Protein 1
Amino acid sequence: MEIFREIENLERELVDPKIRKDIGRIQERLFDEFVEFGSSGRVILKSDVIADANQSRMSTYQLSDFRFKLLGDSHILVTYSSVVSPSQQVALRSSIWISENGRWQMLHHQATVVPDSI
């Protein structure tokens, strides 16, 4: 489905180091009530992501195994795997995207580290 490709591209965009520094793009892509349960165990809000935008990021992400589930007309659940370099840490990830006013925004994200990759 075309919409699934769009959501996959948005997920890839949000881990791009250049995009992570673009506060305007982050504000546009994350829902105001965005919450992330990070792989570190921290709860991360949209304001935290924006505050962190100026931090330099050396990590790169390889994303794979995307799966999508429609949760109604305006919500999509996406799950996938990531490998973070240079640590090679593997995580299982899930996001909920919501379409509001014609644009997709991430409402929720969770990353769970795969223990054997630590």
Note: The radius of gyration is 14 Å.
Protein 2
Amino acid sequence: MNTKAFQRIYTKISQVTKATCSLYAQGVGYEEMATINGRLAQVVKIQGDLITLQVFYGTEGIPTNAEVIFLGHSPQLVVSEELGGRFFNAYGFPIDGGPEIDGKTVEIGGPSVNPVRRKQPSELIATGIAGIDLNNTLVTGQKIPFFADPDQPFNQVMAMVALRAKADKIILGGMGITNDDYLFFKNVFQNAGALDRIISFVNTTEDPPVERLLVPDMALTAAEYFAVEKNQNVLVLLTDMTLYADALSIVSNRMDQIPSKDSMPGSLYSDLAKLYEKAVQFPDGGSITIIAVTTLSGGDITHAIPDNTGYITEGQLFLRKDSDIGKVIIDPFRSLSRLKQLVIGIKTREDHPQVMNAAIRLFADAANAKTKLENGFDLTDYDERTIKFAKEYSDKLLAIDVNIEIDEMLDTAWILFNKYFNEIEVAIKSEIVKKFGKFTKKED
């Protein structure tokens, strides 16, 4: 072994596989970074003095006498206010042609916040998307996934949330996104003039899949800087966590670990939890809220990735195409925000909880009426009105292209109630109706 500027340098590799190199070394830490013939690598396994490194760009062409230099630290990110409006790769290096960041260097992937330093979330995060704000209201410090089939426009939804969300900073972590999606995000953010509050870490399909494992930690480390040191409300958008989990699977398979359910590593739950548990509301006012896309294979919600995600997160948002209006909506039956009760009717208008519940009940009645129709049964007048209501409700409130404030969402719902139903059918408390509703339809 030679020493060079306190770096440990080795030149004897004992084993090379498709994605890893193993060698005997001392004083090396887990997740420590290294270079092997100039290629970046990371320590993924330590057995005594036998060290296994994951080589991000693969091992093809690496000889057994390659120079291995241990860098003495795990992956790092330079944090400062200069991060705002910039695009970075999985290693935290700028990819937008701009200058290097001048600031404080911190290691990524630290522990989540101790529960005693957490505060119960109580602040609303408005996204402008009625299917979220009206029925599945988000709260600062919450962690929630978007479940969507791969053909759904989830990246476009993420871009909409980034532009509309009332947050101090938006941090996008893109994993395995296409080059077109990367350019889409970049153009949308630039054209909206919102770039200064958006920070992006991107791994595209042209980059090594294993790099995806660094992206969420990069995004969350930047989020912690702004939430802790600047007391800002930070929204972290991660897409796509299924591709992140696939990268975990690639690494574990190449290390000959026995796979668990659906070919996923046995550590999948803890790997996902250590990311999602970074969501937090701090007593001093800063917060980290996480919305993450999890694509489904054939709509299978029982697959290991969504299944584990559901145990960790506080609800889910479900995208589906509504055949009646031909638009993608936030499905009110399969979506859930477990923390919405902390803000609806408290941080929003007092009629919010009752309007939300009445609309969902009427939408469910419409679904039952459609089933009757499909099975050849006659529809009542009420059935026909619920079907008309549901179509307009989907178009004006559930569709992802609806961008309005919460008060306008509530007013829109009242207009629809009044158009199709009477006061008894809507079944909202009379004092709330007197204050917010103006029913003109006579009771039957």
Note: The chain has a mean pLDDT of 90.
Protein 3
Amino acid sequence: MSQPTNRNDNAYNMALATVVGQVGCLTPIILIGALFLGLWLDKVLDTRPLFTIIFIVVSAPVAVVALVYIVRKATSRLKTIPTNTAKSLEEEVNRE
């Protein structure tokens, strides 16, 4: 028979999955936004590859900074559980 999972482990795993999902969606959004903005500016100003290349190159560090910001903010919210809370949850799981 398998051991019951700890509710805190499930919450922690869900929080990590949320952070990964946010980072995984935000990075392509930044890169695609930079691409379209560069293409539009090149079309308007008739400077074909200039702004597209500049925005793509600049968007990579911006995406990394956004990634670090999101991860740091999310990890600061994940706090360790006090030992009495962890013990009471473990006792509750063992009773079931």
Note: The CA atoms of residues 38 and 52 lie 4 Å apart.
